[in-house]
């Protein structure tokens, strides 16, 4: 994933998947939910606190409504975001606002999508 923040990669994937299924995020919605996804991964891998994660999640839901995401899209999202690999490097938000380089597994990625859908 080179030097691109994971939330940017996920934002593009969310927007594209919704569009391919005739749906559209409100302006800023895909970005907000991608930030939730990246924050979930940061919670699991970089020490982001549950309070920080919940704050991002609640803010996205309040401002933009529920995530536009169907579980049938998971495989294509995983392929796109993880470059068709089972493990990919990602830049995630650290608890202090810095970026944290981590390896995201396919299983954790799918868990993150579930978190977003349940949020």
H and E order: HHHHEEH
Query: What average pLDDT do the residues reach?
Result: 95
- From the N-terminal CA to the C-terminal CA, the straight-line distance is 26 Å
Helix content: 55-70%
Number of strands: 2
Low-confidence stretches: none
Assess the beta-strand content as a share of residues: 5-15%
The gross shape turns out to be globular
Oligomer: single chain
Structural class of the secondary elements? mainly alpha
Q: Helical segment tally? A: 5
Q: C-alpha Rg, in Å?
A: 13 Å
Strand order of the largest sheet: 1-2
| Main sheet summary | 2 strands, antiparallel
Short description:
This protein is mainly α and 119 residues long. The chain has helices spanning 6-20, 29-45, 50-64, 74-81, 106-118; strands at residues 87-93, 99-105.
Name the descriptors.
5 helices, 119 residues, 2 strands
Report on the architecture of this protein.
This protein has 119 residues and is mostly helical. It contains 5 helices and 2 strands, in the order ααααββα. α1 packs across α2 (29-45) and α2 (29-45) crosses α5. It is globular, with a radius of gyration of 13 Å. The mean pLDDT is 95.
């Amino acid at each position: 994933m080179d030097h691109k923040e994971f939330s940017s990669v996920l934002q593009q994937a969310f927007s594209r998947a919704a569009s391919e299924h005739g749906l559209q995020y409100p302006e800023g919605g895909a970005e907000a939910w991608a930030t939730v996804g990246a924050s979930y991964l940061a919670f699991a891998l970089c020490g982001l606190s549950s309070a920080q994660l919940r704050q991002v999640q609640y803010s996205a839901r309040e401002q933009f409504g529920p995530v536009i995401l169907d579980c049938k899209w998971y495989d294509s999202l995983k392929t796109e975001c993880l470059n068709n690999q089972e493990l990919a490097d990602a830049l995630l938000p650290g608890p202090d606002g810095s970026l944290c380089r981590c390896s995201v597994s396919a299983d954790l990625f799918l868990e993150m999508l579930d978190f977003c859908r349940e949020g």
